[in-house]
């Protein structure tokens, strides 16, 4: 019998670029749901953060921010900044390209990730924030 | 009792880069489905458009196209263009990087978006097109 | 009655950048599942490969690698490389930006793709690998 269990994870971030490993908490929520086989959608309600997977190790915690700055520099002109003056035009553009949602298969009561693959939240906003990530766990 | 409701949204676009806010229409389709809790997958059947979320405001409607042109310029050489001569090699590459699919949790009968977060369709093709976006709404 | 069917596709890749068209195999697995209407989540368990859609034709098989090299060059400094010396720092960063997961609606027993849209696996690692892609097929 298929069911839906909604959960969430909350945490505080430092300013950009702050990468959090959510893997253990997501798997704990899946464990609590009783769902053995299905999917989990991990979603950030907001337009200045993103969800993806990386090997969570110190080298990449520098490489991801470096790539973001190379591709979407802080110090170029952003229309968003011209209008709103909150200093985070680049954050919005980065978030749109990385994306706010990730769906991962659940098998045997946990995410079917690779051995060196973690689910990460990427804070792209230019200030510390209280963040909430929604988990929609579906299956049987 | 879990169910699946398929719906679609159709609209006409101008040529690239034309960003449409689909949020209200997607929420209306979810409302019509009767599903209160689950997920919606928003998918574009085609390889020259993308779905993501942004804060839909005029500054970003310029910043996203600017970033696309900076990262994937129109006027460099594309193998796709050499073969097909339809002027949209860059459109295909941009679409592959942004992605054709977005899955959003549904809670309380609507998408659990942030306050300043909208679901957008991005037309990347170089001409006006009639577009169709498929919504797969699943849950209970 | 909603159900969940887990399947997988295995194949060998050459080193980067090697793009495989998975469309027919995914549709065959959906056919075998008996699910007519729902979604399929196509997921790579690993942090140096990605899933997206493209028009699978020879021009783009060159354009996607060209764009990856332009945006995430092999021969710049990566923190991952400094620590692990496996020559694939750029592979990890590319994979994080492209993403490991794609969810596609199923209608009429197959993926609702566009006519010139294929589901592709992109090998980003710097060596040949045996790869496994997980398909989570859900619906009725």
Describe this structure in words.
3 copies of one chain form a homotrimer. Chain A is α+β, with helices and mostly antiparallel strands. Chain A has a single domain, classed as YjbQ-like (Jelly Rolls, Sandwich). The first copy, chain A, has helices spanning 23-33, 58-71, 79-84, 89-98, and strands spanning 3-13, 18-21, 38-43, 49-54, 101-107, 110-111, 118-123, 129-139. The N and C termini of chain A lie close together (6 Å). At the A-B interface, strand 1, helix 3, helix 4 and strand 8 of A face strand 4, helix 2 and strand 5 of B.
How would you sum up this structure in a few lines?
The structure is a homotrimer of 140-residue chains. Helices cover 29% and strands 38% of the residues of chain A. Chain A is an alpha+beta fold.
**Which strand order do you get reading across the main beta sheet of chain A?**
1-8-3-5-6
- Beta-strand portion of chain A reads 35-45%
Mean pLDDT of chain A: 97
The biggest sheet of chain A, with number of strands, parallel, antiparallel or mixed sense and barrel status, is: 5 strands, antiparallel
Which value, in Å, is the CA radius of gyration of chain A?
16 Å
Structural class of chain A: alpha+beta
In the predicted model, the low-confidence regions of chain A spanning at least 5 consecutive residues are none
Overall 3D shape of chain A: elongated
CATH class of chain A, named Mainly Beta
CATH topology of chain A: Jelly Rolls
Total tally of structural domains of chain A: 1
By CATH, the superfamily of chain A comes out as: YjbQ-like
- What is the level-2 CATH architecture name of chain A? Sandwich
Give the distance, in angstroms, between the N- and C-terminal Cα atoms of chain A.
6 Å
Determine the most extensive contact between two protein chains: A-B, 33 and 36 residues
Number of helices of chain A: 4
The percent of residues in helical segments of chain A reads 25-40%
Regarding quaternary structure, what we see is homotrimer
Count the strands of chain A?
Answer: 8
SSE order of chain A: EEHEEHHHEEEE
């Amino acid at each position: 019998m298929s069911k839906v269990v909604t959960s969430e994870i909350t945490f505080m971030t430092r300013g950009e670029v702050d990468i959090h490993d959510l893997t253990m908490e997501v798997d704990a929520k899946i464990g609590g749901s009783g769902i053995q086989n299905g999917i989990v959608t991990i979603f950030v309600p907001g337009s200045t953060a993103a969800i993806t997977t990386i090997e969570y190790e110190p080298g990449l915690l520098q490489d991801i921010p470096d790539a973001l700055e190379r591709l979407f520099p802080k110090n170029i002109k952003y229309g968003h900044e011209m209008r709103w003056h909150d200093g985070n035009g680049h954050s919005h553009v980065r978030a749109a390209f990385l994306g706010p949602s990730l769906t991962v298969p659940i098998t045997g009561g946990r995410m079917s990730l690779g051995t060196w693959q973690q689910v990460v939240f990427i804070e792209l906003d230019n200030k510390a924030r209280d963040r909430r990530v929604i988990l929609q766990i579906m299956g049987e």
